Amino acid sequence: MEQELKQYMEEQFMFEFDSEITEDTDLFKAGVLDSFGYISLIGHIEGEYGVKFGEEALLGNVAVTFAGLVESVASARRQTAESK
Amino acid sequence: MCGIAGFHASPLHPERYRDIAGAMLAQIEHRGPDEAGCFLDDRTAMGTVRLSIIDLASGSQPVGSTDGRYWLCYNGELYNYRELRAELAGRGVSFRTESDTEVVLMAWAHWGRSCLERFNGAFAFALKDTVTGELHLARDRFGKRPLYVARHGDAWLFASEMKAFLAYPGFEFAFDEEHLASTFATWTPLPAQSGYRGVEQLPMGEYLTVRGTETERGRWASLDLTGGEPPATEDEAVDLVRADLEAAVDLRLRSDVEVGVYASGGLDSSILAHLTKERAGLPPRTFSIQFEDAEFDETAEQEELTKHLGTHHSTVRVSDSDVVETFPEAVRHAEVPVFRTAFVPMYLLAQHVRSEGVKVVLSGEGADEAFLGYGIFKDARLLSEWHELDEATRMRRMAQLYPYLRHFSGEDGHRRMLGLYRQFTEETMPGLFSHQMRFQNGRFAVRLLKDAGDPFAAVQRLVAEEPGYAELSAVQKAQWLEFRTLLSGYLLATQGERMALAHGVENRCPFLDPAVVRRAASVNGRFGDPYDEKYLLKRAYGDVLPERIVSKGKFPYRAPDSAAFVRSRPDYRDLLADPGTLGDIGVLDERFVRRFTDRVFDSPPERIGTKENQAFVLLASTVWLHHWYVRGNARRDTPLAVPLYVVDRRSSALPA
């Protein structure tokens, strides 16, 4: 999932994860994400990985780095599994 | 309306002044095709091309005071000229013409620079004091009329449009990287920026005096958004807003030629069309744009309004290919980088208006800034209250923010917006809280530039140095930024007067009357739901306009951006990414430009978001500006089509 998501983001937002833009880079500050891009990305993740981000994940201020996104997906999946 | 151009303290021989002044004026003749005149002495050459609106017969320029001390080259209209004329006449000042230009001149002669505070108008001018040798330059309070100033060696060049500088011997344009980075990030040039090295724009409400080798600068009008004592009741507020707008329209109907109205189908211009009919006593001629692309079209609202008012309405229908094919010439008139294509249809509209024989129009600019019409003001309010709201309230507010944007719609859209907005609830860009989201989005376009540095350094300096700015509320700061960036840097300039004056059409903006802006400041947020934009305007005119227009909600005027180029001119991919051109331009990051243009031309339009569209138009306009200005192709070598009237005070012209 991580590799696929990276590839999607690199293609969608026209950048490469490298020494300058890492998994911990704030993607807004790097000029990678904008409002439209963020909404599209969250939509993509929810649709592609079968999760639905709740308030906690969206408001947790982690979803603007790659690492934060991956952690949010994992967390949302755990919650989905627990609730089943 | 007119255009002015000239130079001062030039090392060139005064024998050459007449030809150079004439050539500079020829570059901007579109602004004033009716007459041309200039004043020359041994230090200064300055002239005007005139579009005759008031006192058609005797309002010629340049105009000098009766004692010959002051000479004025004036661009604009002084709306309260009759009142000032009467006041000056009461003080013994005599007038030779009926023109507003002479009132400006005599007001300066009588009161000095402090006359500016009495002016209600849209203007920029150059005034020569032949006794002190001073050259005074001044500009109106909201930046409705342009005035650019350039240094070239020891000489000062000035003009309504920068293209006039192309006719000054040896002058060359070069992009200013800091200006470009700031413009790409914040959408528009800042008040003093031009986009080019060594060229500044005289900021709105400021003056510049050149005295020998010294200069004096200052501000004569500041932007007061705190407002006075609010009216006691909503009904009283509605009455006052109506009265101020009626007075503002009355002043702007003063003209010796017919006044039309731009009627977009939106609330603001509909109010103006209604008021023009009421105040002038008959329906005005109205003009609007129709788009072939239904996403942008407002024909239904326009038809309902014009039928309702019984105006004589005509439209110009705009297709993708019209936008793309007109883009280069519209950019030539814009002169600065542009972030959306919506100015191009305005160029075509002005062309149509002029062909219909109309040269003055009222338009609705300023209403959204004064009466809080934009989503960004609701953003600022919501973000500043964020921590006090529960999730249900936040979700409800989200639905009120941008109902016209597809990606922000529906329950999923609003839920996802929570995460987006959460990123901007703390001020991380000092002074720019309300605009952090917009400016962050602008970082993408900055990637087109090499070595951009900090693209927000200039705008942060601007707010840090503004007296009283820190004390404003979040919404007022947002307003201040809108007045100082998008309104003056794009809506009034590129999309407004530059496109209108390209065809000799003068635009007038009643919502930017100082009394209207002051009134708006005193009533904003005091009545009704602050998330219902322009609540008081709707209250004031809801009963006289079609329901459809009043209840529609904000629908920003837009035009097709990158998709129009992709659909109708695929060759733009090669034009924009041409290695020779990019190498010549120098300031663009060639690798990213190529990747970006490939992305735009290879993707389905729904995959292209706002930031890509803005970056695309910024890139395309920069490439054309390089062609027109840096390479100098905007220069016209044809002389003025009208005779140049010369007031010659050079030593060589004086009797021996």
TrEMBL record, chain A:
Q: Where is the Carrier domain?
A: 1-77
Could you tell me which Gene3D superfamilies the record lists for this protein?
ACP-like (1.10.1200.10)
Q: Which residues cross the membrane?
A: none
Q: Name one Pfam family in it.
A: PP-binding
Which residue windows are coiled coil? Answer: none
SUPFAM superfamilies assigned to the protein according to its UniProt record, in alphabetical order: ACP-like
Highest taxon in the source lineage? Bacteria
> Which InterPro entries does the entry mention?
ACP-like_sf, PP-bd_ACP
Q: What is this protein called?
A: Acyl carrier protein
UniProtKB/TrEMBL annotation, chain B:
Write out the residues that bind L-glutamine. D100
According to UniProt, the reaction catalysed is: L-aspartate + L-glutamine + ATP + H2O = L-asparagine + L-glutamate + AMP + diphosphate + H(+)
Gene Ontology molecular function: asparagine synthase (glutamine-hydrolyzing) activity; ATP binding
Keyword list, A-Z: Amino-acid biosynthesis, Asparagine biosynthesis, ATP-binding, Glutamine amidotransferase, Nucleotide-binding
Sites binding ATP sit at I289, S363, G364
| A cellular component annotation (GO) from this entry | cytosol
Task: Name the family the entry cites.
Answer: Belongs to the asparagine synthetase family.
Q: In which pathway does it act?
A: Amino-acid biosynthesis; L-asparagine biosynthesis; L-asparagine from L-aspartate (L-Gln route): step 1/1
Q: Tell me, what is an example of a GO biological process annotation in this record?
A: asparagine biosynthetic process
**What is the recorded name of this protein?**
asparagine synthase (glutamine-hydrolyzing)
Active site residues according to the UniProt entry: C2 (for gatase activity)
Matches recorded under Pfam families? Asn_synthase, GATase_7
Question: Which domain of life, per UniProt?
Answer: Bacteria
Which residues are annotated as site, described as Important for beta-aspartyl-AMP intermediate formation?
E365
Q: Does the keyword tRNA-binding apply?
A: no
Q: Which Enzyme Commission number(s) are on file for it? A: 6.3.5.4
Annotated source species: Streptomyces nanshensis
Q: Which residues form the Glutamine amidotransferase type-2 domain?
A: 2-213
